[in-house]
């Protein structure tokens, strides 16, 4: 069977180490919360081989690359419509999954943040995610307040998921090797069905705060709440990176309250 050629424009780096592939698959631990798993960008099936051995869930594969799709179709002829040739970012999850499902993958690094935001939009349907990312992105996902890696992605993910850095992966186990280190993380949906604030405003506040992260929140958020309504709360003198998820929830409620006042 001819092998699939890695395509630069799709950000493909095929994992070749089977031990690491097995370790990634075994990192799915909340299997009591779902019965289906979607692998994103399976390439030549190094993770898929281990996923399909698992009896506790049903595996689906999605790849935008037609060459990969055809290779996998020959490799796993019994998959049928569980092998999908489509763009994950354009997928309507509810067209395929009516119940919760997990997501796993050696994600293309050029769209990894978009993948995470897509998962966040569908957070109530995705109880667990295990994924390989560029190490820098993985560190941002798990970063704590007051660290330089902490940012928009850290706050949004940690608002709804427990984020764990599992292990680092060297470039030599990929074909072609990426120019960066990689890392595997696990996201486990937390017990927060929704935040204790106006969630739309929360997203606005977090984005505005970090988009001008060198400015104090008083200045960075002047487009969300006018200076004259801010008052003398200590929070306005801080920068966004100092605030935990709970602090951002409290700040959102404060802004909502002040903006509601005439």
Automatic annotation (TrEMBL):
Per the UniProt entry, the Enzyme Commission number(s) are: 2.1.1.182
Q: Where in the cell is it found?
A: Cytoplasm
Catalytic reaction list: adenosine(1518)/adenosine(1519) in 16S rRNA + 4 S-adenosyl-L-methionine = N(6)-dimethyladenosine(1518)/N(6)-dimethyladenosine(1519) in 16S rRNA + 4 S-adenosyl-L-homocysteine + 4 H(+)
Tell me its family. Answer: Belongs to the class I-like SAM-binding methyltransferase superfamily. rRNA adenine N(6)-methyltransferase family. RsmA subfamily.
UniProt keyword annotations, A-Z: Cytoplasm, Methyltransferase, RNA-binding, rRNA processing, S-adenosyl-L-methionine, Transferase
What this protein is reported to do is described as: Specifically dimethylates two adjacent adenosines (A1518 and A1519) in the loop of a conserved hairpin near the 3'-end of 16S rRNA in the 30S particle. May play a critical role in biogenesis of 30S subunits.
Q: Which Pfam families match?
A: RrnaAD
GO molecular function terms listed in the Swiss-Prot or TrEMBL record: 16S rRNA (adenine(1518)-N(6)/adenine(1519)-N(6))-dimethyltransferase activity
Principal localisation: cytoplasm
**SUPFAM superfamilies, per database record:** S-adenosyl-L-methionine-dependent methyltransferases
User: Any idea what this protein is called?
Assistant: Ribosomal RNA small subunit methyltransferase A
**NCBIfam families per the UniProt record, alphabetical:** ksgA (TIGR00755)
Q: Which residues form the Ribosomal RNA adenine methylase transferase N-terminal domain?
A: 20-191
Binding, S-adenosyl-L-methionine: 13, 15, 41, 63, 87, 106
